[in-house]
Amino acid sequence: MNSDQWWNTPVQFAKGVGPRLSPLLAKLEIFTFEDLIYHLPFRYLDRREIDSLNHLTVSKTSVALAEVAAAGEVTIGRRGKRIFEVIFTDGKGHLLAKWFRYNRAYHLKRFQKGKKFLLFGETTLYRGNWQMVHPEVHLMSEFADENNVDEILGYLPIYRSTEGLQQRTLHRIIHGLLPELQDHAEETLPQEIISHYHYPSRHESLFSLHQPPRNAIHSELERHGSVWHHRLAYEEFFYLQLGLGLKRRQFIEKQGFAHLPKIKLRNRFLKNLPFELTQSQMKSIDTISQKMTLPQPMNVLLQGDVGSGKTMVGMVAALLAIENNHQAAIMAPTEILAEQHAKVFQRHFSPLEVPVRLLTASTPSK
After folding, report:
1. Which among 116, 281, 315, 327 could bridge 277 via Cys, Cβ 3.0 to 4.6 Å?
2. What is the mean pLDDT of the chain?
């Protein structure tokens, strides 16, 4: 499979997706491998350092390595609601983990006394004791070696998701594709640009944003200001500008109407006005009139506040086209505005013997 085919492979063929999860990914506008790889995390949890249980902080996402001291169901409240609690210790302090939704048999088997776990969650104080509610837990014996532990202790990417699609599922699907990325993430930017800005490769940028190295700066990742973010953003704007440049060149190469610089109607129009146009209005008129005499199609945006005289400038442009034996169409977004414009044009163009007609959606076809 070549790179183009790989990027365009339907997402249902990614490991762990299939026909069951592909409709959920479609809600996130993820249809191909490319969509999946470019579904970048919007934030990151910092899980690089293990916190001692006697040095925890309120309302902070903490990482703890501790063993089970006791576990079991307890009853709380007047209604006798049952919850599952585990007391963890690291030899320096204690932490109470609580589950309000749980499977009794599974939790009793999993949290046996003496087993060591890595815990991730927000720490709070409750009646003088540190606690985590529904923490993320990993059994230490499930790790084959130090490298696996180190990977879990790195940054945890958080992805935009949808109902029915858990973070760990997205994490598993996306990270399942990362090993194949190196063979297909071909470089797209010119080498001069990469060298000039000291950008990393496309592969490194995509890989690192899904799996940041431990020496990455958390604040840069959070505000999307890392060198990997910068490189991908530059690439996106580079090709946007390139596409606009190509369209602009095609536009310029088209043949337009080269109007003759006739000014009789213009002069009569300006003379009949009960006021003089401002310097900015006259400058706009001259600029537009000059561009209308060129053989290339005109592409101009006239910008101004309400009441700044944009309609008057448009009238002069229309008169130049009319004096060159063309029709001029003034378009408006609503029928009411179109009617208002028609009245203004009729008032100013009648003395010039220039006919004005109003055409709206409600005008009979014939």
Report:
1. 281
2. 89
Which residues pair with residue 158 across a beta bridge? 43
pTM of the model: 0.60
The interaxial angle of helices 335-349 and 264-272, nearest 10 deg, is 100
From CA 88, how far away is CA 261, in angstroms rounded? Answer: 87
CA pair distance 175, 198, nearest whole angstrom: 26
CB 235 within 8 A of CB 206: no
Confidence check: pLDDT of 131 > 50: yes
- Distance, CA of 123 to CA of 53 (rounded, Å): 10
> Long-range CB contacts (< 8 A, 24+ apart) of 61-64?
61/120, 61/121, 61/122, 61/123, 62/119, 62/120, 62/121, 62/122, 62/123, 62/132, 63/118, 63/119, 63/120, 63/153, 64/88, 64/90, 64/95, 64/118, 64/119
Cα→Cα distances 246→239, 242, 250, 257, Å: 10, 6, 6, 22
